[in-house]
From TrEMBL:
Database matches in Pfam families: GerE, Response_reg
Lineage: Bacteria, Pseudomonadati, Pseudomonadota, Gammaproteobacteria, Pseudomonadales
Keyword set, alphabetical order: DNA-binding, Phosphoprotein
Domain of life: Bacteria
GO biological process: phosphorelay signal transduction system; regulation of DNA-templated transcription
Positions where 4-aspartylphosphate occurs in the chain: 58
Protein name (Swiss-Prot/TrEMBL): Response regulator transcription factor
Length: 212
């Protein structure tokens, strides 16, 4: 058995969550918290500096997002073992992070129960996706997702543009915009345009609702 502890990097913009993880890890001598980061840019820098065995990565952080950090780290270090830390099981950001190369998925609400076993599993070279989460993820991967053009249309709707303005902005016909909207509403199971934007924001398909 290898006596060298598993070296862990924790990335989250909430200090309390990082402290909570540290407190759990402290009771397990086979896991060593070697570093922390509060945003995606710091995560990339700390990973390059420390080369941890396992990284736990929050997704919603100021500046560089967790998904972007995962992409950057995996591009430089293809063997990097990174697990997603998220609040929502159905978050599109988490799905994007898994597609970017994350090898595990941890709900923050389950950290106290699953944290140690997840780290050990990931360190052993295996993936870690708890059963209910795995089912949701694979279902989300399998079902139709919005196309790039549909996301562009939805962003324009979020900006308050009507179909004619969206058509002009994207250099497509108004009928094409209407077709995209029908597809978006069907895929998101939305009642109307505003509901579609709200669902997309909640799931992380678009980033923010413009102000003003």
């Amino acid at each position: 058995m290898n006596d060298t502890p598993i070296r862990l990097l924790v990335v989250d913009d909430h200090a309390l969550l990082r402290e909570g993880i540290a407190a759990v890890i402290e009771a397990h001598p086979d896991i060593l918290l070697v570093g922390e980061a509060a945003d995606g840019q710091q995560a990339v820098e700390r990973f390059s500096e420390l080369r941890p065995d396992v990284t736990l990565m929050d997704l919603q952080m100021p500046g560089v997002s967790g998904t972007e950090a995962i992409q950057t780290i995996r591009a430089r270090y293809p063997d990097a073992c990174i697990a997603v830390l998220t609040t929502y099981s159905g978050d599109a950001r988490a799905l994007q992070a898994v597609q970017a190369g994350a090898r595990g998925y941890l709900l923050k609400s389950m950290l106290r129960k699953e944290l140690v076993s997840a780290i050990r599993t990931l360190s052993a070279g295996k993936r870690y996706f708890p059963e209910p989460i795995a089912s949701e993820l694979f279902e989300a991967i399998a079902q139709d997702t919005l196309t790039t053009r549909e996301v562009q249309v939805l962003r324009s709707v979020a900006e308050g543009l009507g179909n004619a303005d969206i058509a002009t902005q994207l250099a497509i016909s108004e009928d094409t915009v209407k077709g995209h909207m029908r597809s978006i509403m069907d895929k998101l199971k939305a009642r109307n345009r505003t509901h579609a934007v709200a669902i997309a924001l909640q799931r992380g398909i678009i980033d923010s609702w413009p102000q003003g």
